[in-house]
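Incident review: delayed structure delivery

Summary: a single-chain prediction request sat in the queue longer than the usual turnaround. Root cause was a stuck worker, restarted by the on-call engineer. No data loss occurred. The affected request and its eventual output are reproduced below so the record is complete for anyone auditing the incident later.

Affected input:
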Amino acid sequence: APPRPSEQMPAPALGMANVAAPPPYSQVQIAPAEGVSEPGLPQPTNLERGRDVTQPALNEVTPVTGDTEPVAWPATQTHSTLTEGEGAFTIPNLERINPDLPPSVAPAMPAPHFVHAPDTIPSLVSAATLTPDLAQARTFFKTGLAEMEAGVRPNPQGNTVEPASAREAAELFRQALEMVPGSVIYRYFYAVALRYSEGFDVAIGELKRVLEQDPSFYEARQQVAYGPRWHDAFAYPAWVSPAPVGIGAPIPGPIRSLLPPMQPGTRLVLLREGGTKIAAFLSRTLRITWKQLPTVEMRATLKLFLSRTPHGPIVALYILVMDDEENPYIGETFLNPYDPEPDMGDAGLLGRNMLAQLARQDRTYLIFADENDRLLLSRKLVFEAATQVEIARVLYEAQNLPSQVMDQAHFAEAAQWHIEHFSLDQLR
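Output delivered after worker restart:
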């Protein structure tokens, strides 16, 4: 197949969006150094093969103060999928909420949560089956979620929830909990609201109570382990389906700030859908790169590998969009499973945690922006069973690597080595 044209633009700094958040809680801060190139970083030599990168897209975290010891790697999750079209999906153990279901009560043994986003699937339980207390609790909970959403305030540094809105939401969640004290979902969101309204030191008590009821509750476990360095979903830019802007419209500022700076490339980023956190692929690309501009009808897939380079192991991720069956669009990015533990920063952006987040999903978003930061396409990519197995396998392999640390320089060298030795023909 003929090679794609090279996408040459100024070189970026390495890494995903650098974030920080001083305790007890505040907006996500994007480091100003994100758009500054670093001298001496490796340049790939194989752009003529159609890679949509001019440098390895590496994961990087800017430190922030924090003295809580990090949690061990999350255990690999078992996935069970309920899919009803593009707009409906299940994410195991991701605390998704369906207000039409009775509130979950902690089981005797830890088990995954199979709960859903509001209004994404038909109700599995008729409102007529709910007792008056359950129905009232559900109303309090739904109103509390709406209050949190109304209080979100995006800005160039990220998202926060206004304390007044969070306080109102906390009171609503508290009333729901009084009616259904066994609901781990209600208690978790009560803790989240307290974190925004009263601070982390107040919220952690409720987070620990969540874990007393359900030790497998991932988000609560991570917040207790990492402290203020672990952010809930409301701290990230929002994205929904259909996209909040039309094709050809400018990408919203909070999303645009996460794009690879000044050049084509792909990143794995954290976004928010309702009250849920989701890892999504965000790409900047030149229109000339595409044989046909991307559409939702084009086949797309995700592939990933644990690449054992002479400089250390890294995770290589690829998104493929079949605009040309012989020479498809390929976006490439890398994660560092050996990220140094920062004293500060968003622990959710550590390579191992990004990979774990991806493994806890059954789909992702593919978001493409052109050279003018206008939306080319936003689509959900629901993972096939084979893709879910592959993600789980790579996570398992990464979790079982010998314990060590890979600094940014060695990570860049490992990514460069992979680019020079991995043939994209293996993906086609």
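Verification: Residues 1-55, 59-128 have pLDDT under 50 and may be disordered.
Action items: add queue-age alerting; document worker restart procedure.
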